Amino acid sequence: MFGRFLKSNHGAIAVETALTISFVLVPMTLGLWDAATIAIRKGEVDEALQAAITYVAAGNASNASGIVAAARAAYGSNINVSTSTTCYCVSTSVSPATPTGISCSGSCASGADLEQFMNISVSSTVAMPVSAPYLGSTVTVTSSAQVRTG
Q: CA–CA separation, 29 vs 43, rounded Å?
């Protein structure tokens, strides 16, 4: 009775197509959706960092709350912005110039210039549209830069 069903190949293409779609195409599409979400958020974080850099480059390096506000105006309030100041003594008498880290309240030896930089880091946590047990449900995207301020 079942012999004629085992010999028949009607509907085999439909079964193969259903298996291909369910085990290959659907996971691939969901993975692309996750990757696209991360890429979009990374672009937004980069835009927020650029806004903060522009604000600092306009001469507002001492206004930390303004830097955060500039970054959040470009992206939104759900980002983290951190800033720190770093200073270096750069000896111009040695080629190539070799920077040496120093306290920003310190002074450099003669023949060296005090250079001040601001480190800006912008990050955001992205909730994944499709969570997989081995990937986690969130990803943090970060962009950082160093801007010369003096």
A: 21
The DSSP secondary-structure symbol of 61 reads T
Q: In what order do the strands lie in the sheet with 98-102?
A: 98-102, 80-91, 112-132, 136-148
Instruction: Report residue 87: phi and psi, to 5°.
Output: -125, 150
pTM as predicted:
0.75
DSSP assignment of 95-146 equals SS-EEEEE-TTS-PPTTEEEEEEEEEEEEEEEEEEEEETTTEEEEEEEEEEE
Burial label, 61 (beta-carbon count in 10 A; 0-12, 13-18, 19+): buried
pLDDT in tens, 97-148: 677 788 888 788 777 888 888 899 999 998 888 777 777 788 899 999 998 8
